[in-house]
Amino acid sequence: MKFIDSHCHLDFSEFDANRESLINACVVQGIDQFLVPGVSLAQSQKLLEFKVTYPQVIIAAGLHPYFLNQHEESHLALLYDFAKANKTQLVAIGECGLDRSIEKLEKQTLLFEQQIVIANELCLPLIVHHRQSHDLIAQSFKRCRPKYGGVIHAFSGSMQQAQYYIKMGFKLGVGGTITYDRAVKTRTVIAQIDPKYIVLETDSPSMPLNGYQGHINTPLHIPKVFNALCDLKPNSDQRRLAKQLYDSCSDVFCI
Fold this sequence. Notes:
42% of the residues lie in helices and 16% in strands. It is an alpha/beta fold. It has an eight-stranded parallel beta sheet. Helix 5 links the parallel strand 5 (126-131) and strand 6. Helix 3 runs parallel beside helix 4 (105-122). The protein starts with a strand and ends with a helix.
């Protein structure tokens, strides 16, 4: 079986000591591609060189709300110019989105909606971050409808929200959350979603799986996320399910 980690921050400093050996270990386990999102203008630009160094990596460019204090409005034009000039090297715009745990929602909304515009103009999908913000994202989508879908990263919404995103052309990113028994709502929803609308992810080095709290998360845990998904879909053929998930990721990012 083959897997893609559709969302991991392999360029972060947590992996500086063992990045190459980690990637090699992943490949041995069938994890043969890693999507590394952009989080700031400077980091997105550096991902071009990172991709050359690690050919298993595919990249996106974006302005993440967690790094809001690093973003200037002028960065939107620079992000557009960078993405346009390097479109063949990018598979998406993001990580972008809205996060109620972070201040300055007005600035977040401006940056998010302008990144939707960039994605639409460049015919690219989006990687969307959310936190207590599904309603705000829906409002942004109403004002500025994404044309090429993408992934709702770390989806943890209701069935109604899942169906809304799917109708809008998005896949649902599924990671370590479903390994926790307490995540009843998310597990219940994901159990009912057709695998063609799901992509696997880790969000490494964050979002550790159940039993690994306090440890750095890595793409090596993708098979564990897959096994948790298999538990939610006990009547599925595992090899067929793995192929459906791989194809789902390949489809949304055109890889």
